[in-house]
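Researcher: We plan to redesign the surface later, but first we want a full-length starting point. C-alpha cells attached.
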C-alpha cells in the first residue's frame, strides 16, 4: 500500500503540479492582465514565515464564476472587490513575510471556454530550504459556476535506510 501511495504521489508531481477538472486549466503567464477591474484576493497559508503551503489567488470579481478555497477558515483570508493595483499590492505584502521565498510564479486560471477566471500566484522556494517545488493546486468546477480550489504540500517519505530501528542517524 505504501509503495502504491508513493507511486501515485510521484505521478502527480511528474505529470503536473496543477490539476483542474470540469474544463478548467492553468498556465504560467509573464504578467497579470491589468484590464480586469476588480479582484477578490484569497490569501492561503503564511501562518509563519516558513510556511510552504502558501498561495494567493486573484478571483475576477466581474464574472459569473466564484473561486472558493477548500480548507479550514483559519488557513485563508479573503479580501473582496479590490482594484487590480490594490490586489497586487496585497499579494506582494503577503509574500514579503516569507523568509524562504525565492520568487513567485503567476498562473492564469482559465474556464471551460478559455475565459480568464483569475490568477494563481504561487511561491517558488529556495531549493536549499525546502527541496523541489511540491506545492500542488487543483481547481474543480462545481454547480452554479463555483470553482473549488485545493492547495496541498506533497510530502514524500525517504526510502528506508538504516538498521531497522526507529532511531535516526545523522552523519557529520
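Model: Full-length starting sequence:
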Amino acid at each position: 500500500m505504501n509503495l502504491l501511495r508513493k507511486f501515485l504521489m510521484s505521478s502527480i508531481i511528474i505529470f503536473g503540479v496543477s490539476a483542474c477538472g470540469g474544463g478548467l486549466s492553468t498556465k504560467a503567464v509573464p504578467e497579470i492582465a491589468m484590464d480586469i477591474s476588480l479582484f477578490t484576493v484569497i490569501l492561503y497559508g503564511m501562518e509563519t514565515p516558513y510556511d510552504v503551503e502558501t498561495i494567493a489567488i486573484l478571483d475576477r470579481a466581474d464574472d459569473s464564476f466564484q473561486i472558493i478555497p477548500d480548507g479550514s477558515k483559519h488557513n485563508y483570508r479573503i479580501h473582496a472587490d479590490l482594484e487590480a493595483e490594490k490586489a497586487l499590492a496585497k499579494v506582494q505584502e503577503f509574500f514579503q513575510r516569507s523568509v524562504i521565498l525565492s520568487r513567485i510564479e503567476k498562473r492564469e486560471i482559465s474556464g471551460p471556454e478559455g475565459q480568464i477566471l483569475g490568477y494563481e500566484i504561487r511561491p517558488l522556494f529556495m531549493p536549499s530550504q525546502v527541496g523541489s517545488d511540491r506545492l500542488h493546486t487543483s481547481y474543480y468546477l462545481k454547480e452554479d459556476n463555483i470553482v473549488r480550489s485545493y492547495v496541498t504540500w506533497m510530502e514524500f517519505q525517504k526510502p528506508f535506510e538504516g538498521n531497522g530501528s526507529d532511531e535516526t542517524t545523522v552523519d557529520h
